[in-house]
Amino acid sequence: MGVYKTAFLSIGSNLGDRLLLLQKAIFEIGKLAGEIRQVSSIYETPSWGFEGEDFFNACLELQTLLSPEDLLSKLLAIETNFGRERKDGDEYQSRTLDIDIIYYEKEIIDTANLTVPHPKMQDRKFILKPLADITPQFYHPIFNKDTRNLLQECKDKSTITKQIRRLFKNRHNFFASLEYLAIEGNIGAGKTTLATKISEDFNAKLILERFAENPFLPSFYEDQARYAFPLEMSFLADRYQQFTEDTNQLDLFKSFMVSDYDIYKSLIFAKVTLQQNEFDLYRKVFNFMYKEVKKPKVYVYLYQTTERLLQQIKQRGRDYEQNIELSYLEKINRGYFDFLRTYPKENQLIIDVSELDFVSHERDYEIILATIEDFALSNL
């Protein structure tokens, strides 16, 4: 078993969605190079030595088993995967991602490929300012001055602006920041499975709909007209009671909440199943309740084709669902999309999972996680 070493890295970007690129890079560094222990604030600074867009810069503390040379190799590979093209004189060109090793323990390294400590760090405020966030008292092994002293003596007069948005050191911290994530979808879309996987992987409190316990549901599938109103009122009462209890009761050992439904689905299903006069009465009761419930920070809708929904419904084998008609599923799909047209765009994410199998294939599950990350990082 190797011994963990502490390295401090500088990361920057001035092309594309800068915050998203930096955050995805941090996740990748943590995946391939070690454990991210600290992340500084983000600072916006002008391009250094050339005309270009302003940079977002930050610094990281990394615990790694890699040697300095192997760490450099991993970081260069990550830059390349993020679209960085290194050319002669690349130091003064715009870039999607720039990662530099500032310190590796107290080592002094000077080879053809790597110089540590970073030879120009003392002249660059965009390195020293974020570095001071995470290691203000780390002493430069050559200058014998800590980060605060180097920053005070730095002659760089560039404007540096701290950003409100922040970076997360790992995916667990990122998902915790969402506070409440709702996974929605039509019958058989896979919302319960996905919510359960996310709760297990990221230490979330799992809130599942207790639909199977509803005594009116089997009867409704046999005679929809007769049992629609008592079914929907029963669902609404159960959902409201459960939802308010679950979302208001804090769990100190969980990082955030994830549910396989949002209470608004009650109105969507009711609009499809009820007669107009029944629906008008239902909506009055619903609107009163909806004002009181917690709203998700991200509302994810899993879209599946109705043909695949029917296939998955048959596969899971619930007796009372086997007579569901394709036309009913299509109405539910339309109901969700009508609702989403009224929902804040910055909080809703539609993911087409018709070609994905996130149960059997880890890559498909990863696609969904990355889609949620990209959306939240770009919109929240």
Notes on the protein architecture:
It comes from marine sediment metagenome. Its EC number is 2.7.6.3. Residues 8-136 form the 7,8-dihydro-6-hydroxymethylpterin-pyrophosphokinase domain. The chain is an alpha/beta fold and 380 residues long. It has two domains: 5-162, Alpha-Beta Plaits; 171-379, Rossmann fold. The protein contains 13 helices and 13 strands. It has helices at 18-32, 68-81, 125-134, 147-153, 171-177, 191-202, 217-222, 224-248, 265-273, 276-290, 306-316, 326-340, 362-379, and strands spanning 5-13, 35-39, 43-45, 55-64, 98-104, 109-110, 115-116, 161-162, 180-185, 204-207, 256-259, 298-303, 348-352. The strands form three sheets. Strands 1, 2, 3, 4, 5 and 8 form a six-stranded antiparallel beta sheet that branches. The chain has a five-stranded parallel beta sheet with strand order 10-11-9-12-13, with helices on both faces. Strands 6-7 form a two-stranded antiparallel ribbon. A hairpin with a 4-residue loop joins β6 (109-110) and β7. α1 (18-32) packs across α2 and α3 (125-134) runs antiparallel to α4 (147-153). The longest helix has 25 residues, at 224-248. The mean pLDDT is 91.
